Amino acid sequence: MKKIKILFLSTIIITIAFCSCSRDDYDLEPSTFVPDPVNSDLPEYSELGYNTFGAYFGRKPFVSNNSEVPLKIIIKNDTLNLQFTGIFYDDDKKTKAVLNFAFIGVIPYSYENLDVLADKKYNLTDTACIVTIKYEEYQEVFKIIEGRFEILKVQNLVIDNIASKAILSGKFQFQTYIDNDPTTISNGRFDVTVGYENFFSIR
How many angstroms separate the Cα of 82 from the Cα of each of 36, 59, 158? Predict the structure, then answer.
């Protein structure tokens, strides 16, 4: 009976050790695109660190890909910048684009304390919010008609009692003008990991 207990405990310890090593070795950097069951051009909303984002500009998708870091968090002075980089699909043309949300206010000073952003909801018409897009030679600061940006969940990945990365998940949508034409950016969602590689504090 004693041998059985020892064997059982040994099995549990080995399993835990294996799982810990697997989590440590698991590379969260590549994007895992799981199509949304309704809007298949976009990744489905998830909270698993798939490193994806997507939104519709009118009817044209803007999504992450494996060639670009999907999100960079850039802290500059008192401003938090969430910089999404991906591909804008316009008919048969693919264009690299950068969509940036800038928020003045609550500032996480490292990726280890991104949990200060959990459940944050931003009204994009607020003067403390600035939304810009840049692609090719085009750059524009959006005049927001209506919109919101929500960070629904922040998860810290802890390895050996040290915060290794964080997972940010949330949604966004807004109405604005593109070339003076009212346009809706809809179904925005993101599930991205943040760590040393893509968190920048610039003073």
Answer: 23, 23, 23
